[in-house]
Amino acid sequence: MSKFKPTIVLTCVTTIVAVLLVFTHEFTYVDTSGVITDKLMSACTETMGEGDYSIVSDWKQAGYEIDKPDNVEKMIKKSDGSIAFEVITDGYAKGGIDLLIAMNADGSVKAVSVVSLGETPGLGTKVNSPDFLSQFRGKTGEINAVKNSPSSGNEIQAVTGATYSSKGVTKAVNIALSTYAQLNAEKGE
């Protein structure tokens, strides 16, 4: 029995500590899924201007027939009815691109803002440049990032040396465009 006594004591101690940790977590946990962070608020202001913003947490309850797509992190509505989507996609780094894409009422892109960027410093982070992001303004439909000068209206020029990151941003914008089109298709617009 003396061989098992330390094992029993250690098991009891770890069980008590685990229970205390679970209790502490439950007692102190704050759900932040419906909170607009400072970075997200900055992106909202940059893309849609000053105003009151809210996160649409239940799309069906808000009157939309589609469920929130898995690749859309949040839908944000401005008090004037404007909509933006927070989308996180892969660039060079997995989940390294977190964008806010604001939409115009006609279904085109109003503006794109970076919420956070986990791409390679000096290369992938170049997709945060206003010159690159402004290429998306007014775009509709499926957009492609190309290495050379764009030859059609649905192309944007990728950042040299940051092709994966450029394609990741383009993917995020395409997700927002597709989601907005689905929202309007259900209303018959």
Instruction: Quote the beta fraction.
Output: 15-25%
- How confident is the prediction overall: mean pLDDT? 88
Biggest sheet character: 5 strands, antiparallel
Helix content: 25-40%
What is the chain-wise order of helices and strands?
A: HHEEEEEHEEH
Low-pLDDT runs: none
Please give the alpha-carbon distance between the first and last residues: 77 Å
Q: Which oligomeric state applies?
A: single chain
The rough form would be described as elongated
Query: Roughly how many Å is the radius of gyration?
Result: 22 Å
Tell how many strands the DSSP assignment holds: 7
Structural class: alpha+beta
The main sheet orders its strands as 1-2-3-4-5
How many individual helices?
Answer: 4
How does this structure look, described?
This protein has 189 residues and is of the alpha+beta class. 33% of the residues lie in helices and 21% in strands. It has four helices and seven strands. The strands form two sheets. A five-stranded antiparallel β-sheet has the order 1-2-3-4-5, with helices on both faces. The chain has a two-stranded parallel sheet with strand order 6-7. Strand 3 and strand 4 form a beta hairpin. The N and C termini lie far apart (77 Å). The relative contact order is 0.13. The model has no long low-confidence stretch (mean pLDDT 88).
In short:
With 189 residues, the chain is α+β, with helices and mostly antiparallel strands. The protein has helices at residues 5-28, 38-48, 130-133, 163-186; strands at 53-56, 72-78, 83-89, 97-103, 109-117, 144-146, 155-157.
